[in-house]
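KTSC domain-containing protein structure dump, as promised
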Amino acid sequence: MLRSVGYDAATALLEIEFTSGDVYRYFAVPPSVHRALMDADSPGAYFNRHISDRYPTRQQYDR
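structure tokens r here:
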């Protein structure tokens, strides 16, 4: 489900690229949530339960 994950602690910005190729940015994500995502046995399941509908998001489009 998740292809790659990037995180900027200074801005609390989490960027996720999905296996579909879609890229989304999630705002105001605490470092602890990013760490838990990276440490999860199933990052996709963690994302669905703890990130997906809980943080403001915006899809990134190619320009």
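Strands lie at 2-8, 13-18, 23-26, 57-60.
lmk if u need the other ones
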